[in-house]
Amino acid sequence: METSFGWGGSPEEVALIASELQARSVPARVDVAGTAQGWREPATRPTSEPPAEGAALTFRNRDARQVAATLRAHGIHHLHLP
């Protein structure tokens, strides 16, 4: 099974961590989704402001410990990862 974890990092930041994990033989990928954080309705967002782009790191559950260690090394902490 896979899980995803997003911490508010840009797609580029998440891609760097995914690359680091892949270099350690841990399959990981970046999932990018457009979001409108802070705005309930897209119509209420100012037209000059594009939607924020969110990114998440997706990895196998069995690699959670190694992913958590890599994230901690980058100053990213998540209580549910061992």
What is the topological layout?
Layout: E1 2-5, H1 11-23, E2 28-35, E3 52-60, H2 64-73
Antiparallel strand pairs: 1-3, 2-3
How would you describe the overall organization of this protein?
- 28% of the residues lie in helices and 26% in strands.
- The protein contains two helices and three strands.
- The chain is globular, with a radius of gyration of 15 Å.
- The longest helix has 13 residues, at 11-23.
- Strands 1-3-2 form a three-stranded antiparallel β-sheet, covered by helices on one side.
- Residues 35-42 have low confidence and may be disordered.
- The chain has helices spanning 11-23, 64-73, and strands at 2-5, 28-35, 52-60.
- It has a single domain (2-73), classed as Alpha-Beta Plaits.
- The two termini are 17 Å apart.
- With 82 residues, the chain is an alpha+beta fold.
| Strand proportion | 25-35%
List the total number of helices. Answer: 2
Which stretches of 5+ consecutive residues score pLDDT under 50? 35-42
Helix/strand-derived category reads alpha+beta
- Gross geometry: globular
Overall number of strands: 3
> Quaternary state, please?
single chain
Radius of gyration: 15 Å
CATH class: Alpha Beta
**H and E string:** EHEEH
Quick summary:
This protein is α+β, with helices and mostly antiparallel strands.
List the defining traits of the structure above.
alpha+beta; Alpha-Beta Plaits; three-stranded antiparallel β-sheet
